[in-house]
Amino acid sequence: MMTNLFSSFDPTTNFNLSLNWTSTLLGILIIPISFWLIPSRNNILWVNIILILHKEFKILASNKMKGSTLIFISLFTFILFNNFLGLFPYIFTSSSHMTMTLTIALPLWMSFMIYGWLNNTMHMFAHLVPQGTPPILMPFMVCIETISNLIRPGTLAVRLSANMIAGHLLMTLLGNTGPSLNMLFLNFLIITQILLLILESAVSIIQAYVFAVLSTLYSSEVN
């Protein structure tokens, strides 16, 4: 039994190096590689998923630049592989750490803000006051919109890491109670853990999609 509940998020490695962060790149091994002219079923499934995501993000991005959805599809697959692989035993989940999620969210938000305020300054100012706001409330709305804009990378990062942490903590708590249960309750515990694992598999996909969609919407505001 673990002495600390949060020790599953900070495993120790040898040679005084944080080698567990190398699990971030494990998702690259899952991407199907095409060696033949006729694609395999894995390739067909992968291409169909990418095309569906491209159509979704193209509608949300609302710009005519070719390849603008590529970064968001890559972001989705990167977070998805990290979330999903973290459900397997003895694989470090880097997406449950704010170090990882803020590293993704902050540069995206900064690039959107710098591009928007330099190239579309009046458009960015217009976003600070919603349409139909009474004149007396306009100064307050500017403050509210500015604050909500500043906390965007934090909310993106916290939302992703908090959902991953919550699922892992629940599975850790349930796993620690197993040795102290009798056979009848142990069967209920195993069924509960299987259901929770299915739920966490869905959450890993949903959180990757939410992160990518929100990033796409933030990028559409600066165009």
TrEMBL record:
Protein name: ATP synthase subunit a
InterPro entries per UniProt: ATP_synth_F0_asu, ATP_synth_F0_asu_AS, ATP_synth_F0_asu_bact/mt, F0_ATP_A_sf
Protein's cellular compartments: Membrane; Mitochondrion inner membrane
Source organism of the structure: Rhizophagus aeneus
Gene3D superfamilies: ATP synthase, F0 complex, subunit A
Pfam families in the record: ATP-synt_A
CDD domains, A to Z: ATP-synt_Fo_a_6
Signal sequence, start to end: none
